[in-house]
């Protein structure tokens, strides 16, 4: 059957450390991009307090101007 994932998906109870992990990663990103004005958001199921989730912290970045991408991209790759 095409499109079947052979990996087991693990879902766990909410862990308050996910928020701390996001904050740590957010600070690393901010440092790497030298405080360039971008949005850094914790998204997905680990961002919802009390929700069971796959234990993967998803982070979304938003930039106001696409020209910033040329600055942000190499900094993120460096992380």
How would you describe this protein?
With about 80 residues, this protein is an alpha+beta fold. The protein has one domain. About 35% of the residues lie in helices and about 15% in strands. The longest helix is centred in the N-terminal third of the chain and has 16 residues, at about 15-30. The protein starts with 16 loop residues before the first helix and ends with a helix.
How is the secondary structure organized here?
Layout: H1 17-32, E1 38-43, E2 58-63, H2 69-78
Antiparallel strand pairs: 1-2
Which tags fit this structure?
79 residues, 2 strands, two-stranded antiparallel sheet, globular, 15% strand, alpha+beta
Q: Please report the number of helical segments.
A: 2
Percent strand equals: 15-25%
DSSP strand tally: 2
Helical content (DSSP H or I, runs of 4+): 25-40%
The helix-and-strand class reads alpha+beta
- N-C termini distance: 37 Å
What order do the strands of the largest sheet run in, or round the barrel if closed? 1-2
Instruction: Write down the domain tally.
Output: 1
Question: Which stretches are low in confidence, meaning pLDDT under 50 for 5 or more residues running?
Answer: none
Largest sheet: 2 strands, antiparallel
Order of helices and strands: HEEH
| Spatial shape | globular
